[in-house]
Amino acid sequence: MRFAARSALALCLCAAAVVSCEGVNTLSSKDNTLAKHPDAQAASPEWTLDEEGLGTWETCDTCEQCILDPLPAGVKPPRPNGGGPGRDPGVVHCKKCLGCSVILTRMKESQPMKAIGKDVKVFSGASGAAVMKGVTAERGNVFVKAWCGLKGNYRQTPRNHPLPTKCEHDGEDIPSSQRRPCQLKGGIFGWSECNFKFLNALDKLAEDANLTAATPRTWTEHVKSFIPWQEGDEAKGIKVDTRMQFYEVAEGASIEALYGGVLDARTMALTKKIPHEDVVRAAVFDLLFSEQDRHGQNVFVSETGRLHVIDNEGAFGPINSMLIPGGQKYEVYRIGYNAVCCGNLPGTEEENCPGKISDASAPEVMIDYRCHAPGRFIGTALPPGLEPFLRRIEKMSAQAVFDHYEMSHLEHAKTFKVRVSEMLDGGFERAMIAQYARQPPGDGKQYGNDFFYGLQPACCGAKEGAHCKVRIAGREEQSFNNLSEEDKLVWPGNEPGREANTLWPGPVEAPHLKRPMGNKLRRDSGEVRIPAAAALAQDNLHLSMRLAVDDDNGVITCEHLLSALEAIGVDNARIELEGSGEVPIVDGSAYQFAYECARVGLVPAHADGSTAEVPRMAWRPSEMITVRDGDAFVQFIPDAVTKLLPMPREREGSWGRIRQMLKREAEARGEEMPKF
Q1: What is the pLDDT of residues 613-665, one digit of tens each?
Q2: Which end of the chain is less crowded, N or C, counting CB atoms within 10 A of the terminal residue's CB?
Q3: Vertex 440 angle, CA 434 and 445, to 5°
Q4: 112-139 as b/e: b if 16+ CB within 10 A
Q5: CATH number for 590
Q6: pLDDT tens digit string along 204-245?
Q7: Considering the domain boundaries, does residue 149 fall inside one?
């Protein structure tokens, strides 16, 4: 009886096994229980376990189609035969592969934009990094990027270099003690972990600063996938097994692709849809995090007008953003590449320079933050939630910021701390001007990210007759001209306020726009130098001082600034002025100039091209000098240091106290008190 029972049980188990095996052969994508994002559901191909060419990520060497569904539990992984027509017999090739973490596809060359009624170009970037669209089960559509670690000689475009198959500088398989130190820049071709740290630290900073609405979120994941199958691509179908950077999708297209260099009625209408707070937020992002490569190919606008910035690998450097006036990116759109970078054109500098200024500006100038800020000025009206973050950072050391945000380079934390301090000290424009003061003036020849070109007034519309004229598409010129004046403005009625009129009152003749005039004081860059010498002071002026080398080149109202420099002990300084040659009068005193100089501190001057300090050449009278004008007078008394002392005419008691002070100081130095 026992034997019979066991036999019956064995027969039962065997029968069950047969049913199970038959069921496995009919398993398909419909039986999969993996929860998928709707985007992933739409992108996932159907499959059946018994179809020819089905494999898994683990069992296939090359694959034509990735599947996010995992291999069903308890099922032996399918493994197609190796080889085939034109293939290495040792390579297992699959038509479809289960178990991918992301489905990768190549970027298209163009995409439709319904808002402007045409297809627009998709830029792939100039760095050569691998940039692909992706779909994951959890997040749906994403973008994925790598700077190394893909096999098969992957090229982003035929003109790019192949991606390095190994991340030899800082790959995850290299012991940390043997990795090279991270470089200052982010997104470097051939690097991996340093690029990941750079971008993830920036993402965390943006989150804490409440600025994530300005740019897509980003993170790092290990990718199990295959390079997209594209005929003619040497790397098609090669297995991907490496860490890559993921990004949320920025909807729409780049602003440079949308405009195509000219403006028409539809692109003007889309420009007017852009929320002003989007532009201001993006500009604050670029200034706060010191973006040095913000051009129109990485500023995106959606069908509804929402604006985001992408590719933030130029952070923590100088500022050079098309959203912020004064940098090279902005200036190229304003007056043309030839006028800004003539030395970078094909041919010789003698042939190309000085470059010709464009007759009209590119439409990108209307994305200047000032066109979208009330009164064309931000000041301390920073985006919500930002100031408390700045206050927290201000209390931290650069090392603490570096450690907390796991940054890739300590200099990034130092640069960030400076920007935070300057924003808190006086707002957006204060920080912008302070940073530009550290950047060399552009000469109209060199290409680079660290130049400053002067602050021109904003160009916030396409109205002719203003200081700027935006380039209109020839075929659209008549229909565009039929638009109302309000329809030609980014923000009708948003005129410059008092602050904007003070900071950029009119067109500025920046050094790169000046032309050689033969003046012996004019340098190659077109700059005129005017020594602060008494011999150059113009006579018969009572309300202000004017220093001039000739009738055309002079500086007025410089007495307040020169007094401030004298008072704080500066005897060697370079003062740069643009525009009308007038030193801002501020409150009419030397206080503000003295305060700002004292706040940043003084350093020894060095000779050009040398580390040697320039000897102090301060003028000192050898005897007491008195200059009178009626009852008023100024008296110069020989001394080793500069002092400014009042000399009251009516209160001899006060003058007596000053005498006592001078006497004590002279005795302390072992000198005789000057005779009065």
Answers
A1: 777 766 667 788 888 877 777 777 777 666 666 555 544 444 555 566 666 66
A2: N
A3: 140
A4: ebebbeeebbebbbebbbbbbbbbbbeb
A5: 3.30.230.20
A6: 999 999 999 999 999 999 999 999 999 889 999 999 999 999
A7: no
Dig out the tokens for 502 from the structure: 């003070």
Q: Are 477 and 374 in contact (CB under 8 A)?
A: no
Q: Where are the beta strands (DSSP E) in 564-645?
A: 625-629, 632-636
Residue 134's DSSP bridge partners are 104, 142
Instruction: Please tell me whether residues 336 and 471 are part of one structural domain.
Output: yes
Contact 271, 479 (CB under 8 A): no
Q: Identify the domain boundary among 558, 573, 603.
A: 603
Please report, for residues 34, 48, 146, 417, 544, the alpha-carbon distance to residue 67 in angstroms, rounded to integers and kept in the order given: 11, 12, 21, 46, 78
Q: Are 182 and 198 in contact (CB under 8 A)?
A: yes
150-159, 381-390, 427-436, 616-625, range with the lowest pLDDT: 616-625
Asked whether residue 289 is assigned to any structural domain, the reply reads yes
- Are 466 and 331 part of one and the same domain? yes
User: In this structure, are 533 and 589 located in the same domain?
Assistant: yes
Q: Is residue 584 very low, low, confident or very high in pLDDT (cuts 50, 70, 90)?
A: confident
Single pTM value for the model: 0.74
Domain C-terminal end among 84, 100, 116 = 100
| Token couple for 627 | 């200059």
335: closest CA among 175, 484, 508, 191?
508
Considering 263-277, 507-521, 584-598, the range whose residues carry the highest mean pLDDT is: 263-277
Q: Are 504 and 456 in contact (CB under 8 A)?
A: yes
pLDDT at 521: 38
User: Could you tell me if 362 and 413 lie in one domain?
Assistant: no
Q: What is the DSSP string of 396-445?
A: S-HHHHHHHTT-S-HHHHHHHHHHHHHHHHH-HHHHHHHHHTTSPBP-SS
> pLDDT tens for residues 192-204?
999 999 999 999 9
Number of structural domains in the chain: 5
In the sheet that 307-309 helps form, which strands lie side by side, from edge to edge? Answer: 253-254, 299-301, 307-309
Strand partners for 66: 97
Confidence (pLDDT) at 603:
78
Range of the domain at 550: 521-603
Range of lowest pLDDT (515-529, 585-599, 624-638)? 515-529
- Confidence at 524, pLDDT banded by 50, 70, 90: very low
Q: Name 10's Cβ contacts closer than 8 Å, sequence gap at least 6.
A: none
Residue the block writes with tokens 């045409």: 118
Q: Are residues 475 and 391 in the same domain?
A: no
C-alpha to C-alpha distance for 308 and 216, rounded to whole angstroms: 7
**Residue 402 covered by a domain:** yes
Pair 596, 640 in one domain? no
Percent of the chain beyond pLDDT 70? 84
pLDDT of residue 516: 41
Same domain, 534 and 641: no
Whether 311 is covered by a domain: the verdict is yes
Asked, as a colleague might, if the bond just before 354 is cis with ω within 30 of 0, I would say: yes
- Is 548:535 a contact under the CB 8 Å cutoff? no
Smallest CA-to-CA distance from 102 within 49, 140, 147 is with: 140
Strand, helix or coil for residue 558: coil
Q: Give the CA distances from residue 14 to residues 2, 19, 74, 120, 224, in Å, rounded to whole numbers and listed in that order.
A: 18, 9, 17, 63, 37
Residues 365 and 396 in one domain: no
Contact 131, 107 (CB under 8 A): yes
Residue 598, number of CB atoms within 10 A of its CB: 12
